[in-house]
């Protein structure tokens, strides 16, 4: 049975209106710097990679330029690889793992792939360590036509010319303890429904596409990541976050139906990583390393 959870904004059972969303927004404060943590790192990569601005977010009084990193000398005869991070701004290793991969690994694939890396899809949320954007919208349920989330719309516009040509898309995420303490209760309050408490898995796992599953691909990524950090076990129901475990460390979602970032292309090989940064068995560096390892494994499998 769903257990109602108190959330300090709104009336239980009633979806938020403009007043509740404004009250929520008033509580959000900048806790870190996109410019310092992300843009400054991107600047250090400009001598080795092409960097394109593909959009700008305007959340007055703040504006955020959106950048994509590309390896040089793209060729039509090469496979295309898309890496995205920071769709949920609070999921730190998705951002920094993507940047780490570019810095340490991307040059090894020169002449083998056309690489497009978008390390921080949601910079407003990155600064506020939040899941939603300033409109109280989850970008990772908004990758659909006429998206209400400008972060999702900008990324979809960037990728649209390549949508049918991408071979691999790996979307870098985290599952955190705050999913249960803040973000899922906030979601229930926003939508006027009861919050059903869940269980946060201790370890790394992947989300495959239930419409076009690639089990061998997913297991190749799991095997490489396990060299860096531990893999999440199934719970007593044989599930991870409420979904059946279909293989070790893997669950399935209908990516496009749910409006998830990993479903924005026709890539044969696609996955969403989920790192657990709150584990006593994992450090921030391990989380970043796990994300970079997942990207390497995904590319290597696809190139075989």
From TrEMBL:
Residues 30-304 form the Peptidase M14 domain. Belongs to the peptidase M14 family. Keywords: Hydrolase, Metal-binding, Zinc. It comes from Dyella mobilis. InterPro entries: AstE_AspA_cat (IPR055438), Peptidase_M14 (IPR000834). Its cofactor is Zn(2+). This is M14 family metallocarboxypeptidase. It comes from the Bacteria. Pfam families: AstE_AspA_cat.
